[in-house]
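A common beginner's mistake is to predict each chain separately and then try to dock the pieces by hand. The better habit, illustrated here, is to supply every component at once so that their relative placement is modeled jointly.
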Amino acid sequence: MEGILQGLHAVEGVLGTLVVDGGGGLLSYKAHAVYDFGLLQQLGKRIVTAVDSIQLLHEDWDLLTASFGDGKLLLKNLKAGDGARRSAVLGVIAANQLNASFAGVAIRVAAGKLKAELESGRVSAPMSAPATGQSSMAVATQANSQAWAAPPASAPAVASNGLSWSGLGGSSRVAASGVSVVDPESAAFLTSCSKALAHSVGPMAKVFVKEALRKLFGDHPFTLANADALINEITTHIEDPAEAAAFNKAMKTRR
Amino acid sequence: MGAPTQSLVQLAKQHVVPLPEVLAWTLSDVSGAVTDGGGDLDGESAAAVWAVAAGALGAAGEQLGMGVLQRATLVGPGTTCLVIATEDEVLTVYGRPPKPLAFFEKKLEAILP
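With all components supplied together, the output reads:
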């Protein structure tokens, strides 16, 4: 992967490049010394938090460009397709003078090569911290094909807020409508459910409740008769046992 | 970016949101609570998702010493999205997917004083 990332540095304005896996682990990086391993490792976690969130609505996302006051961060989705193995993201740290057109072409080329590397199974588990004195320009490419086994059906997402969840299961859902219910009582229950879950996950609660509804009932309208199934489904995805128990108890008393 | 970032969201709401190429939009506070919106969009979900994403991206920018997040763009086969963030608000604008995102960015640049 070193050579692929090196190629991106030929584009004026590129300050650093990194590849992170779905858990935020650094698979490879090449960057100016100011971006050391520890910093990039933390950056990887932030990238995954952002990407996990975005993928809930836009599973087909391709390129994200974040513009700051004094630089840019470009993220390229390295997931090859539905049948692809574990996902990864290419990150490009750049100065504001980055030529978007040149960079876009270079990133597409690099992404194609990186996907091939990832799919080949030659790329590895996340890097560990370099030994003292090792240059931050070093790039690790360890061989461990086991690390690229296909992910479980419900891949961890938004792990930072204590909840594991799968994506919404479709491509972009810009036009996703609200959930259908059979009566006002069912709607009120869903509102309570979102509010209770918000104690654990914040504003994403409503998204997660909708995800559970789609998973369990598809397009069928929700009814209170299905409340237990919904509560149990949501509860299984709350990682903190105490929060899961509190949610389960709170909702079953409101049913 | 010559304009105060605080007003950029309102400028974009005034000049970008009414464009016919805009499919939908949502305005929220930084916690993801929707304050305004329109179009064919599950605004509450979009606001929550982008509030979390903007928070993470903003933290990434600060960590890299690049300052605060000003805007983000997302493209994909079915997605054209522009996000403008301030300390208090997040405006998310969805365009019709075939429309190049550069169109929105140019419009945004044009409204800056």
